[in-house]
Amino acid sequence: MKKKIVIPALLAVSMGSSWATGVADAKWTHGYSGQSAYQRTGSCAYGDRAGGEYVQALHDGMVGNNLADTGTVYRDNQSWSSDLTGSFADSKQFFAFAGHGLDANAIGNGKGAASHFYTLNSSTQFHSSHSDDAANAQWDEIRWGSNGLRWATMYQCNFLRNLGSTANDTKILNMFKGMRLMMGFASIMYLDSREGGRYAARIGAGWTLKDSFFDAAAYYQPALKYGETNPTGKVIARVVGPTSLGGDKWDSSTGAGLSFNGSNASSFTTWTKEITINP
Amino acid sequence: MKKLIISATALGVLAFAGYSLSVEGKSEEKLPELFIPGMGQSVANDFKLSLESMDSSELPEKQQVYKFKKFNITLEDARKKAAQFDPSFEKAAPKQNAQLNSYSFENETVLVEIEKDTGKMYYQDKTYPSEVAKNIPSDEEAVASAEEFLEKFGWLPETFEPAGVTANTIVPGDVNSETEAGDYVSTKTVHFYQKIDQLPVLGVSRIMVEVGDNGQIVSARKYHKEVEAFTSYGLKSVREAAQDLQTSKGVHNISEDAKNVVLDKVELAYYEDPARLDQQPYLQPVYVFEGTYDYEGKKVSFSGVVPAVSSGSIKAMDADVPPAVSYKEKEGK
Predict the structure, then answer these.
(1) A60 to chain B: which residues are within 8 Å by CB?
(2) Crossing angle for the helix pair A209-220 and A194-204, nearest 10 degrees?
(3) Most buried of the four, A124, A208, A223, B133, by CB within 10 Å?
């Protein structure tokens, strides 16, 4: 499925500082990895989504709102699982992934929820199976913060969903090695690239990252008339991080947050908002 | 003189023809393709459908399309609206956000934001603490508080009704964030959705009111656009819409590896896209399918949503614009 979307990338750059009507004057380092061409390029049966367009819109918004200078955006064939599991994401202060997401039980290897890629850490080799190791960046493979990542946004389904398991909550916290906040969803969600622009605009206007993420979801995530089957269609947005950092915004410290060590879980918090219901 | 009469007659004929074309043109105007975003989770992408048990005899051949109102809210208008929440905003100089196309009035206690074109509004009580509530209202009490607030400020059109209440939670990291979240409610959100012509409006046509301790209104989002009647458009056949569902031109929640997918029911609804008015000026009808499929030995129900206006009345979206930022080569990886 190809969802054609008009991406305001060129427009965004051309507008440049005219966006800068907010308050931000941060210069974070930032990086992005997003996939759209799952099916049309990677023959992935999950279908094309607007992941690449979302990270581009978010990047452009971050630049346009004086939150960062031009950063690195890996899209489609250049977007690899090693962007998350290797050094790329952790070398930036602000990172986002957008694309398909698999819940903690989907792959069945015990390594948790995954960001899914059609690439196999290569711009020319694509997966033959959804469960190919190199096609998924999973909880147990992600450790962020020891080298610089402070705020991560996972614009995909299910990355912050524990499926009722406390062990999965621990796996989520295990990713915190200095990262301050992780934004994501505890449910299905819908990929709309425009949401990235609003998220950046809110951060640029001085909102907390947490509330910026929630507000962008409230503005763009659609309510659909689904039944009570799984997935139900309800969209649940979630932010996880050290309790004291829930108010992080553009001028917050870029110092390391709390590192999870297995015994300090009570110093972390999970903030959750149900964005849509079945009308 | 004769030439003048002939010229005037010709002009009159041309003017009448132009007028006729413009009137006729209203019903011929092609609508922008309705964008419904795809789910970030795997769903069936290749499946066969059975329509034999579905009754679509009561569906109309045409359906009203609505146009979103454009308000062009001035600074003075915005000040009056904002002053409803804090009188000091009557003479305030709001921030104007070019990207969000909005006025933003803010002081130490209140934030009010108004979109210039659509009239969408956001309200926030900035004094409310981000913590677990001590006396969170029941769902019924939350609805009552929300309705009282919306009616006070004229935010509750007759077409809207409360559609559900959900809990927002702040859960400590040593507590299960899902199974025990009910003990850590910070606020409740009352969700309002609307019906137009008795049909539900899906998408983002909503009002969300966040209610906190003792019924305090924490925030309110009037994130729907207002509409006015436009004209009727012919609808695609149900069979064509079902094919669209199969080829993922809409959205559904049919699992991968689904077998024996059967459509049982189809209804009409409307779908509001959050696009800017110049990108999607219309509220368009959609088909909502319901059915069942076999999955791992169980019968599972599903739903699907497909744009309903006849394909011949739709203009395709523009092609993707190339990214402005070139990819950096992944050297050394």
Answers:
(1) 324-325
(2) 150
(3) A223
- B131 → chain A, closest CA residue: A271
- Structural domains in chain B, CATH included, are 30-67+230-315 (2.40.128), 73-120 (no CATH), 128-224 (3.10.450)
Residue B312 φ then ψ, to 5°: -70, -15
The chain-wide mean pLDDT, for chain B, equals: 87
Residue A227 in this model has a pLDDT that exceeds 80? no
Is B152 strand, coil or helix?
helix
How many Cβ atoms from other residues are within 10 Å of residue A84's Cβ? 25
Residue of B nearest to A211 (CA): B130
Considering only residues 31 to 70 of chain B, which have any Cβ-Cβ distance to chain A shorter than 8 Å?
33, 35-43, 45-46
Whether residue B324 and residue A13 make contact (CB cut-off 8 A), yes or no, is yes
* For A77, nearest residue in chain B (alpha carbons): B327
Q: Given this model, what pLDDT does residue A10 score?
A: 36
Interface touch B176/A220, C-beta < 8 Å:
no
Cβ B204–A5 below 8 Å, yes or no?
A: no
The pLDDT score that the predictor gives to residue B13 is 45
Mean pLDDT computed over A20-36 = 85
Q: How far is B230 from chain A (nearest CA, A)?
A: 23
**Is the separation of the CB atoms in B194 and B224 below 8 Å?**
yes
Tens digit of pLDDT for each residue in A37-84? 999 999 998 889 999 999 999 999 999 999 999 999 999 999 999 999
Q: How many CB atoms are located within 10 Å of the residue B129 CB?
A: 10
In chain B, residues 178-237 whose CB comes closer than 8 Å to chain A = 178-179, 181, 189, 191, 193, 200-204, 206, 208, 221, 223
**Would the pLDDT of A104 be above 80?**
yes
DSSP A119: B
> In this predicted structure, what is the pLDDT of residue A223?
92
| Residue B166 neighbours by CB under 8 Å, 6+ apart | A274, A277, B188, B189, B191
Asked if B247 is an interface residue toward chain A (Cβ–Cβ < 8 A), one would say yes
Interface check for A41 against chain B (CB to CB < 8 A): the answer is: no
